[in-house]
């Protein structure tokens, strides 16, 4: 430690707060001027903390598993009845799906339809919440990506077991950041499956993103399925997103299939598309 | 043996000096873990940082000098994907306000300190909202900022209770070691 005279030390400590406040303003300007710098700093930090988060998550997951197990035991009878009913319904759907698959294959043969190649994907675990008051994002632990067979790229599409969750916006050396569909900056071209009308899915920070800019005369109907559209060359067509839900005030929102509040594993598909990245 | 005792005492002092910043850092990292609650807890991280920071700024300002506050603010900005610098400024100003009033506040009863903290949290929310809106150059809904302020105000007693015990234990240890706080 330096030995400073008392008045000098007092003067320095009195000056440090204003100087640092000025530095904070400088940082804001720097972040505004060079957005890439902030992004790199964020990913470097995420890379550094991901192993710790990964380790911390293990006991948390075990605890949550035990709680879920206990709750499941309590609701066993009701759950069983519900599953029996659902199983009957799904069996009908399975038959319908098999018939449709066969018909679809036959029609494709007749048309000489070129199948799209399956996209390579990696599966990664969500280890931390990367969002704040005005951002909805998650951080994934991807393991060392250097020598991986399918390198992860910006723009990869993230799906959970049920549907679209978001898109990879930043990739570090062992972590990646996925901005969710609910983020304030998320804008996604979608297709309303019933009317084949195109629209935009706009994140509002709330649990349900909002539909905007549909063509006049094709109002989104309650319960209509919403899927991705290949419009902006950012997504492949037809990934499931959710169902239309009209609010009391008449706005069209989408009830997402993906369970964004309890994301655990995400599949990251690389369709080789790079359109309209934020 | 006095060498050993000196070393132990030095380690003890060091641990006490690093504890407030280290604890805040640890809580920030824990707050970034996915909560797993049905609605999630957006804005939890800043709502953890502010009570910690204000508490230590009032009761043990030497342990959180402005450069450390700057570092914690930067960490908060990077972890929450906020524009870098906005959280730094909010935390520095909150630290400045709390440190300026500390002589008055440190002697008050808990409820008054809580009330003062509520004022600081409200100011921090308004400032944070303004800075984020200015830096993104768009209007932002005020609801998340309000929610964050309420969360911070609600979390203050939860955090302040163990921190007060910790602070008293540290004071006792310092009194026993024979140097002033």
Please describe the topology of this protein.
The complex is a heterodimer of chains A (278) and B (181).
Chain A: H1 6-33, H2 35-74, H3 76-111, E1 121-129, E2 137-141, E3 157-159, E4 164-171, E5 175-180, E6 187-192, E7 197-202, E8 210-212, E9 225-228, E10 240-246, E11 252-256, E12 265-269
Antiparallel strand pairs in A: 1-2, 1-12, 2-5, 3-4, 3-12, 4-5, 6-7, 6-9, 7-8, 9-10, 10-11
Helix pairs in contact in A: 1-2
Chain B: H1 2-31, H2 44-59, H3 66-79, H4 86-100, H5 102-105, H6 110-136, H7 143-177
A few lines on this structure:
The complex is a heterodimer of chains A (278) and B (181). Chain A contains 3 helices and 12 strands; from the N terminus they run αααββββββββββββ.
Describe the protein.
The mean pLDDT of chain A is 87. The radius of gyration of chain A is 24 Å and the shape is globular. A 6-stranded antiparallel β-barrel of chain A has the order 1-2-5-4-3-12. Chain A has a 6-stranded antiparallel sheet with strand order 8-7-6-9-10-11, with no helix packed on it. Chain A has 3 helices and 12 strands; from the N terminus they run αααββββββββββββ. In chain A, helix 1 crosses helix 2. Chain A is an alpha+beta fold. In chain B, helix 2 packs antiparallel against helix 3 and helix 4 packs antiparallel against helix 6. Chain B has one domain. Chain B starts with a helix and ends with a helix. With 181 residues, chain B is mostly helical. Chains A and B meet through helix 1, helix 2, strand 1 and strand 2 of A and helix 2, helix 3, helix 4, helix 6 and helix 7 of B.
Keywords:
heterodimer, A: 278 residues, alpha+beta, Thrombin, subunit H, 2 domains, 6-stranded antiparallel beta barrel, 6-stranded antiparallel β-sheet, 3 helices, B: 181 residues, mainly alpha
Oligomer: heterodimer
Helix content of chain A: 25-40%
Largest contact between protein chains?
A-B, 49 and 50 residues
The main pleated sheet of chain B reads as: none
């Amino acid at each position: 430690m330096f030995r400073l005279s008392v008045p000098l030390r007092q003067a320095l400590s009195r000056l440090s707060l204003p100087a640092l406040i000025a530095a904070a303003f400088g940082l804001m300007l720097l972040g505004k001027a060079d957005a890439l710098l902030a992004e790199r700093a964020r990913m470097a930090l995420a890379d550094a903390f991901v192993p710790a988060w990964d380790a911390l998550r293990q006991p948390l997951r075990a605890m949550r598993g035990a709680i879920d197990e206990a709750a499941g035991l309590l609701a066993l009878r009701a759950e069983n009845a519900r599953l029996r009913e659902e199983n009957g319904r799904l069996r009908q759907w399975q038959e319908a799906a098999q018939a449709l698959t066969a018909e679809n294959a036959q029609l494709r043969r007749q048309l000489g339809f070129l199948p799209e190649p399956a996209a390579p994907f990696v599966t990664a675990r969500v280890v931390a919440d990367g969002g704040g008051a005005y951002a909805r994002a998650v951080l994934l632990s991807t393991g060392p990506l250097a020598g991986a067979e399918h390198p992860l790229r910006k723009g990869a599409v993230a799906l959970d077991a049920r549907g679209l969750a978001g898109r990879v916006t930043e990739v570090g050396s062992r972590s990646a950041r996925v901005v969710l569909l609910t983020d304030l900056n998320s804008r996604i071209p979608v297709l309303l499956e019933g009317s084949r009308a195109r629209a935009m899915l706009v994140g509002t920070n709330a649990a349900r993103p909002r539909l905007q800019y549909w063509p006049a005369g094709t109002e989104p109907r309650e319960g209509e399925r919403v899927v991705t559209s290949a419009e902006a060359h950012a997504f492949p067509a037809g990934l499931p997103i959710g169902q239309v839900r009209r609010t009391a005030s008449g706005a069209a929102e989408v009830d997402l299939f993906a369970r964004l509040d309890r994301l655990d594993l995400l599949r990251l598909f690389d369709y080789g598309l790079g359109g309209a990245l934020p | 043996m006095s060498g050993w005792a000196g070393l132990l005492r030095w380690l003890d002092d060091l641990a006490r000096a690093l504890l407030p910043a280290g604890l805040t850092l640890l809580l920030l990292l824990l707050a970034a873990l996915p909560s797993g609650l049905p609605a999630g807890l957006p804005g939890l991280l800043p709502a953890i940082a502010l009570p910690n920071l204000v508490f230590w700024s009032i009761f043990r300002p030497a342990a959180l000098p402005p450069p450390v506050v700057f570092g914690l603010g930067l960490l908060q900005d990077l972890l929450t994907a906020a524009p870098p610098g906005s959280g730094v400024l909010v935390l520095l100003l909150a630290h400045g306000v709390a440190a300026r009033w500390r002589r008055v506040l440190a002697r008050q009863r808990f409820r008054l300190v809580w009330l003062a903290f509520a004022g600081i949290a409200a100011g921090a929310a308004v400032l944070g909202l303004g800075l984020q809106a200015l830096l993104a150059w768009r209007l932002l809904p005020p609801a998340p900022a309000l929610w964050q302020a309420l969360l911070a105000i609600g979390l203050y007693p939860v955090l302040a209770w163990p921190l007060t015990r910790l602070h008293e234990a540290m004071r006792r240890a310092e009194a026993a070691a024979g140097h002033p706080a």
